[in-house]
Amino acid sequence: MPAISSAQKSQIEFALTTRHAQLLAEIREELAQSGQQHFADLAGEVADVGDASVADLLVDQNIAIVRRQVEELTRIEAAQKHLHDADFGACSECGLDISLQRLLVVPDATRCIVCQGQHEKTYSHESTPKL
Ligand SMILES: [Zn+2]
Fold first, then answer.
1. Which residues neighbour ligand 1 (ion) by CB within 5 Å?
2. What is the rounded average pLDDT for all residues in the chain?
3. Total-model pTM
4. Which CATH number fits domain 6-122: 3.30.420.40, 2.60.40.1120, 3.40.50.720, 1.20.120.910?
5. CB within 8 A of 115, min separation 6: which ones?
């Protein structure tokens, strides 16, 4: 089990919350600029619900400009749900601990740096890591 203290989890939680808010702001801005004001309003309404339904909707709409951001948003939300699980911080590939330093920079990381490197070499065309 990864040895992440509750203080460290708070740090990661803060990083997740900050990134989540940042992404929502970026998505709203992109949508507003691209004339998708309807979706921008929609994204604004659910900003604090933690609900991925708008993310799903936006992906369905296939709005390419925000697609990557929405994908990251979905991973952030998954990490927020997963944060208090006993196995949070364990690499999904090798089971070793993902370094705290990495989790703070990439709070939605599901692989350690070694496995992520391997994964990117193998699946360089794939933008969404498997959970
Ligand atoms: Zn690993």
1. 91, 93-94, 112, 115
2. 80
3. 0.69
4. 1.20.120.910
5. 91, 92, 93, 94
